[in-house]
Amino acid sequence: MQARTRLLVVVILTLCFGIGLILYKHLALGFPLLPYDKTFVWTIEAKIDFLAQGDPVIVTFTLPPEEPNLTFMEEDFASPDYGYSGLASPTGRRAQWSKRTATGPQTTYYRLSLYENDWIADQPPSDAPQSPMQPEFDEVFKTAAVTLLDQVRAKSANPETFTRELIKTLNSTSPSQNQRLLLNDHADAEYKTNLIVNLLALEGLSARVVRGLYLEDGRRRQSLTNFVEVHDGNQWILFDQDTGVSGKPDNFLMWQRGGQSLLDVVGGTNSRVSFSIIKNVQSTRNLVVRSSMNKQAGLIDFSIYSLPIEQQNAFKMILLLPIGALIVVIMRLIIGIRTSGTFMPILIALALIQTTLVTGIIMFLIVVSTGLFIRSYLSRLNLLFVARISAVIIVVIAIMASISIISHKLGLSQAMTVTLFPMIILAWTIERMSVLWEEDGPREVFIQGGGSLLTAIIAYLFMTNRIVEYLTFNFPELMLVNLALILILGQYTGYRLSELYRFHSLERRNDTSKR
Question: Where exactly are the structural domains of the chain?
Fold first, then answer.
């Protein structure tokens, strides 16, 4: 296999692997591709109040089911001096608080924080229905129910349309005598829900009660809203019991399915539950990282996120280096900019990140120009190379210390950041430029020094871009994409842009001479 073919295989594999990991984190784990992505987080608090009678107390409360399109961040169970345990039942999750003895007003709390996963479609429940149990009605009530069902059946074609027509009929503004008898003028929403379920059971349709909350910011002392869910033979369909509209409403949280009680209190009276809701905005990235860490996702559990914060902050800077390396490769191989040293511009760019652009450029020029002047004097002393470069390092440190002291006395706090420049690299740069001055003259020094500074500035602009910073830290797989691009550019042997410009000037001179 030829070298070019081997390189092409390595590039394709590296590129596919890097892009594949990025897509997995975005599509499967939910990592956003932009740092500005925000998510609404809903915090719901259920407050349970009751009056204890001095006996052992057991409080059982239904918890909301976990759904594919929802992520439960935190669940808190707060109650003074009560024991807590989670229960599993055929109808869903339940929480249980217990205490040996209690007297007087008692309060327990359940708090849930959640957010919606927009990338996962909302799916209807797939559990099979149970055979409907025929309700027990007295003769008059059953006659009215059968008469109403006959009327509704004549106006419907299937279970879905039958349920919708039944709900609309029961909520008619001009009810018939049978409707008034069935509804009972003093009946509440719970009564209406059970009536609809019983009428559907009388028709032979499986139905159940669904309770949930409308997620609205700043709501207090809210109660659950009742819906009716009907199985049409293939799937469950949710209906609003007041309007007959099918489908799950927007910002509606399913809290309970089935006819099991929401709250049971043993050893207490006058029990009630109320809900409070608040909404806040959080970074989608932070939510996804926390959720993935809680689920112990392998790609996240063995990643930078598992490191201490101090090391994470260090890697934020380190992971920017491949971006700087790619800029240097493009500037040198494609554009043809000459620099002093291969990757010195990256180190200068890192220093500029710490010192800010303008201040960093000024400090760099002052240190290098002063160091070149002193280095020219040292060259007259005929020192050996090791001693000369060591002396330059000491001189650079002295220059940086002097700048810091003077800037501190003048109140220029930004100039004090000159200490963030890499001293060894500055000393080596001064040495290289001094030798270059002696061998090729000052013009080449200005060309390579200017090229290094220009490349460093361009790298700085990319490395300080918020989107680039976000992508490099949260998608370190981009290093593989960078590597593939650098490997491809490493095979480029064509003309550089600077050479094309130079040859273009030569061509114009030839045309002028021919005339």
Answer: 38-130+209-296, 134-205, 312-475
54, 102 Cβ separation under 8 angstroms = yes
| Helix (H), strand (E), coil (C) string for 30-90 | CCCCCCCCEEEEEEEEEEEEEEEECCCEEEEEECCCCCCCEEEEEEEEECCCCEEEEEEEC
DSSP code of residue 246: B
Mean pLDDT of 326-353: 84
What is the bridge-based pairing of β-strands 83-89 and 38-53? unpaired
Mean pLDDT, rounded, for 114-141: 73
Distance between start and end Cα atoms, the chain:
53
Is 361 strand, coil or helix? helix
> Which position has the token pair 């300080």?
464
Neighbours of 42 (CB within 10 A): 21
Question: Which CATH number does 38-130+209-296 carry?
Answer: 2.60.40.2250
Q: Does the model's pTM come out above 0.85?
A: no
Percent with pLDDT over 90 in the chain: 16
* pLDDT greater than 80 at residue 49: yes
**Helix (H) / strand (E) containing 270:** strand 268-283
Q: What is the pLDDT of residue 512?
A: 56
